[in-house]
Amino acid sequence: MNPVRKVGFVVNKTIPLAAEVAQQTEVLLHERGVVICYAEDGHEGADWSKQDQLNLIFSFGGDGTILRAARSAAPLQVPIFGVNMGRVGFLTEVNPDELPDKLPHVLDGRYWVEQRAMLHCELWRDGREIHWFRALNDVVASRAALSRVVDCTLMVNGHKVTTYVADGVIVATPTGSTAYSMAAGGPILHPELHNIVVTPIAPYLTLLRSLILPGDNQIELDITTDDEAFLTVDGQAHVRLEDGDVLRISLSPDACLFARVQPRSYFAATLTSRLRRSE
Description:
By secondary structure, the chain is an alpha+beta fold. The protein is about 20% helix and about 40% strand. The chain is built from five helices and 18 strands. The strands form four sheets. A six-stranded antiparallel β-sheet has the order 7-6-17-14-9-10. A six-stranded antiparallel β-sheet has the order 13-12-11-8-15-16, with no helix packed on it. A four-stranded parallel β-sheet has the order 2-1-3-4, with helices on both faces. The two termini are about 35 Å apart. About 0% of the residues have low confidence.
């Protein structure tokens, strides 16, 4: 990789240490002549399009901060380097105490780029598309806390697979397979795979649990509900669903890129320890 000359910063300022570490990193980058562009964490789809030739985006926060950064960084194909200020840090690359040692490697271009699949989700109502979303982890159609179960008919490439009567259905990327999908009993996939995982939440009387599909498959969830139901994207964006709504989900043409300084075998080597931190 070429040396880093211009970077973006996304800082979760609700975490005091994140702002402090970002300021310390800013000093080190200025000493190397690196230009820094800021975006406020929490602004959905932070606009990097006016920033020409960004080499990297630094994320100071937890996995939630990276999920927000990913949705705007992916179309630009700019890698994200995550500094973990959260608890688990499945998506981040280093802890704050590791940053002084690893930062020179990154600035010199001594990192490798990991590609992770993202989802493209369209919400259709009355025959027209009313919203679309990009997700790194998952999209979830689910009932509200005190509502009755929802019926979600799963279609794959135009063919009906089953109808889940459940608290909801999770459609996840391999990255999202270690998040809500895993908690609902879904399998863990290596994050560099290009598959889609469909997992029901507390289904009633079904033999079909998680389903792993090829990345080129087209998924449709037809929603039937007479109570409150919601679409949730990466645990952050929420939209109310109505009876008859249709979700059309596929892999996004834009992958999310991550700058890595760990060995390429890091996922298997660190999986167990990261899962323990999430308990």
